[in-house]
Amino acid sequence: MSGVTVVPVRTRSQFDRFIRLPARLYAADRCxxxxxxxxxxxxxxxxxNPYFQHAEAQFFLAQRAGRDVxxxxxxVDRLAPDADGHFGLIAAEDDADTFAALFxxxxxxxxxxxxxxxxxxxxLSINEESGLLVDGFGTPPMMMMAxxxxxxxxxxEACGYAKAKDTIAYxxxxxxDLPPAARRLIDTRAPGAIAVRTLDMRRxxxxxxxxxxxxxxxxxxxxxxxxxxxxxxxxxAKALKPLIQPSCVAIAQIDGKAVGFGILLPNLNEAIAGxxxxxxxxxxxxxxxxxxxxxxxxxxxxxxxxxxxQGGVLGGILAYGIIxxxxxxxxxxxxxxxxxxxxxxxxxxxxRVIETLGAVPYKTYRIxxxxxx
Length: 373
Hints:
This protein is an alpha+beta fold. It folds into two domains: 4-167, 3-Layer(aba) Sandwich (Aminopeptidase), CATH 3.40.630.30; 172-361, Aminopeptidase. The protein has helices at 12-25, 37-43, 96-111, 151-158, 180-187, 204-218, 230-240, 268-271, 283-293, 312-332, 348-356, and strands spanning 4-8, 55-64, 67-77, 84-92, 117-120, 122-123, 129-130, 132-135, 162-173, 194-198, 249-254, 257-266, 297-305, 337-344, 360-371.
């Protein structure tokens, strides 16, 4: 009766429509930033993305009267815990039947593969864009962060989905000086020789392997953790190299051993604003100029400290030391606002560190779950 049909994406034409659909649906949303079509095409391609070495995915388009009105993905990641299935890449008109049809198709696909819970949204992995925006709709998203319309959460919940976990994005004004308490902690004498250095570009791949190994160790006990594989590490290193500035990567060491790190990246969404997803014919040149000139906003997407050094005074010294190094490097490049994200709502130690800096929570992303019959 609804007139909505859902079809699996099989052809190149369908895949292209799948990628471009959000820009049409959200054209009136001044905060929506159209991703680069080339980047999305490669990120969702088994040929280019090593995620597909340990996962499979199916993309779906919802149609009404021959017109695309929604999309969704369903994923099975063999590295995920238990028998969870994932969903993501949600974009749809504000219509109950459209959402119901899309989630019905995704859930049927996951159930057919033995999954007993649907968890998401993940685009495609929890290590990429994750969560549905449920608060903070009034500003554009930073790079590798989702932006959703306010009605999406209501429509998901009407399909039987409930909150599994919230993640928080903090906004940090770099014009603020470090608070005295943080400065005192950095200056505190601690066991061993603590140093925070920048990235050695001459050893770029080895450095990237190092920080990813620390990341996997640091977050291994966290909710929903899925480790980066060796292939994903190399793929990420190659993809991020044009954005990496050595002064905006901090590696903390104790007696010469790397124990923590942080990476700050220019906000690519600021740089591609107005491109409508296209690099040709001349947007690629504009992008190079904008990145060379520098963005005024940035994001810290990766940060971690080895588990044995987390907590207590030593953990605080390392965390603030890393943040101060990133802050110094970012300010030198003209950055004025930094997003620290994402942070699990119940990660109180990290939230305390961030809030002590004067950073404020300004966006909330929700990961949803639903039991599958």
